[in-house]
């Protein structure tokens, strides 16, 4: 199994999606309370997700059991998403099958963040360090973060603004892996953020709400070059069909003229 770091794309590389398994949220309320975690994990993997994120907080109707089920049903790296503040929570994440854990700068003192990063490394876990502004990015980097998440959602007001990701993505050094989180609902959102150099995205609510999450995930993952090739092939197929029909019509006219002669 890959680590989260290995599963992510370099800056400006192919689009990679961390697909989140999410039943509910404090801001949106219930989303998909009856979700089958094992089935959803397998579905996201088959649709092209690079990694999985599983909410384990009861504020999101999640449990560590959900994380264990996702890890058992998929070969993708799984990240524990929770309000982690202690080393023991990291240990429980690893024991449940996690390959990574979320650490939120806004919820941690500087020394605590650095200590948790050291513990995650000792446990063999990657840490995605979530930031919301320029100061928090500086704190994350000083603490030793190697994967930085830029969250478009304000955790205090729950307001989502993609302009946050657009503004902050260029502030993360290219030597640090970058993930943009929250508010991503369409390929247009991905393209807007990719213009800043971002190539990794965490998507949760949109997938939980989607009637066909597999189709949405494939749409989000498909880069412009791939879409261009697909459109070109479709155009060639259409042109080929037209040429074939024209040939048949010409042949039919010749046969009809021969019969009349």
What does this protein structure show overall?
- The structure is a single chain.
- This protein is an alpha/beta fold.
- It has 2 domains: 4-222, TIM Barrel (Alpha-Beta Barrel), CATH 3.20.20; 223-261.
- The protein has helices spanning 4-7, 37-46, 64-73, 87-95, 110-123, 134-143, 162-168, 187-194, 205-209, 213-221, 224-260, and strands at residues 16-21, 24-25, 29-30, 51-55, 78-81, 100-104, 126-131, 147-151, 177-181, 200-203.
- An 8-stranded parallel barrel has the order 1-4-5-6-7-8-9-10, surrounded by 7 helices.
- Helix 4 (87-95) packs parallel to helix 5.
- The longest helix has 37 residues, at 224-260.
- It is globular.
- The relative contact order is 0.14.
Topology overview:
Layout: H1 4-7, E1 16-21, E2 24-25, E3 29-30, H2 37-46, E4 51-55, H3 64-73, E5 78-81, H4 87-95, E6 100-104, H5 110-123, E7 126-131, H6 134-143, E8 147-151, H7 162-168, E9 177-181, H8 187-194, E10 200-203, H9 205-209, H10 213-221, H11 224-260
Parallel strand pairs: 1-4, 1-10, 4-5, 5-6, 6-7, 7-8, 8-9, 9-10
Antiparallel strand pairs: 2-3
């Amino acid at each position: 199994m890959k680590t989260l770091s290995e599963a992510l794309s370099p800056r400006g590389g192919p689009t990679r999606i961390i697909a989140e398994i999410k039943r509910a949220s404090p801001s949106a309320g219930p989303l998909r309370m009856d979700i089958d975690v094992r089935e959803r994990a397998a579905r996201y993997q088959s649709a092209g997700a690079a990694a999985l994120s599983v909410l384990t907080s009861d504020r999101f109707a999640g449990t560590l059991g959900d994380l264990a089920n996702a890890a058992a049903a998929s070969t993708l790296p799984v990240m524990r998403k929770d309000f982690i503040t202690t080393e023991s929570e990291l240990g429980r994440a690893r024991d449940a099958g996690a390959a990574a854990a979320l650490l939120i700068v806004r919820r941690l003192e500087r020394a605590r963040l650095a200590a948790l990063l050291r513990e995650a490394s000792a446990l063999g876990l990657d840490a995605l360090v979530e930031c919301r502004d320029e100061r928090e990015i500086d704190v994350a980097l000083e603490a030793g973060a190697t994967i930085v998440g830029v969250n478009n959602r304000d955790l205090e007001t729950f307001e989502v603004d993609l302009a946050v990701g657009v503004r902050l993505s260029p502030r993360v050094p290219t030597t640090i892996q970058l993930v943009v989180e929250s508010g991503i609902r369409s390929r247009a959102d991905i393209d807007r953020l990719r213009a800043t150099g971002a190539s990794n995205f965490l998507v949760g609510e949109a997938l939980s709400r989607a009637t066909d999450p597999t189709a949405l995930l494939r749409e989000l993952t498909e880069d412009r070059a791939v879409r261009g090739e697909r459109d070109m092939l479709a155009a060639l197929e259409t042109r080929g069909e037209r040429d074939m029909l024209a040939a048949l019509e010409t042949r039919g006219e010749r046969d009809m003229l021969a019969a009349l002669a």
